[in-house]
Amino acid sequence: MGLLVVGLGNTLLKDEGVGVHVVNSLRSRTLPDDVSLMDGATMGVDLLYDILDSDRVIIVDSAQMDISAGEYRTFGISEIEDGAHFPNYSLHDLTLAETIALGGIIADLPPITIVGIQPESIEQGDELTGTLNKNFNEYVDHVYSTILSFGKEEAY
Predict the structure, then answer these.
(1) pTM higher than 0.90 for the full model?
(2) How many domains does the chain have?
(3) What would you measure as the largest C-alpha separation in the chain, in angstroms?
(4) CA dist 106 to 100, 101, 124, Å?
(5) How far apart are CA 86 and CA 66, in angstroms?
């Protein structure tokens, strides 16, 4: 299936939806032919089929990482499996770490890179907070660069 880029989040909870907004913004960019963009919303375990069917995966999501609001980090799955940077990674049904661990039991996982963005607020509202909105183009540019370089270098 090539490279799958998944944006996770609930767009009705302010910054919780940043991953979906980033992926939707990427739709206006020229991407390699093997790249698929997916609005993963809050799918959780339902993402496994698409993840396992892909050669490489980038996941973009809000992440509680105890860093300043608006900062982002890029990690590999081993760093979320041990909880080193994502103690409460995702707000969806199963945590991303649990979903990936389940996928690893079912089959061999493709290389996965995660871009986590620290939210300022996950209260009800359909717009990003000022902090994330101000940095939004930086997130999109970072994920775009990650798309173009993924596979040319080792996954995180």
Answers:
(1) no
(2) 1
(3) 41
(4) 10, 9, 36
(5) 9
Whether residue 93 is contained in a domain is answered as yes
What tokens were used for 129? 């907070």
Q: What are the pLDDT digits (tens) for 108-154? A: 889 999 999 999 999 999 999 999 999 999 999 999 999 999 866 55
Tell me the pLDDT tens digit for each residue of 40-54. 887 777 788 899 899
The answer to the question of residue 85 being in a domain is yes
Tell me the pairing of strands 56-62 and 3-8.
parallel
Residue at token pair 């940077």: 85
CA dihedral 20, 25, 29, 32 (to 10 degrees): 0
**Angstrom distance (rounded) from CA 48 to CA 70:** 28
Taking the C-alpha atoms of residue 154 and residue 88, their distance in angstroms, rounded to an integer, is 26
Q: Give the integer Cα–Cα distance in Å for 23 and 113.
A: 14
CATH number at residue 32: 3.40.50.1450
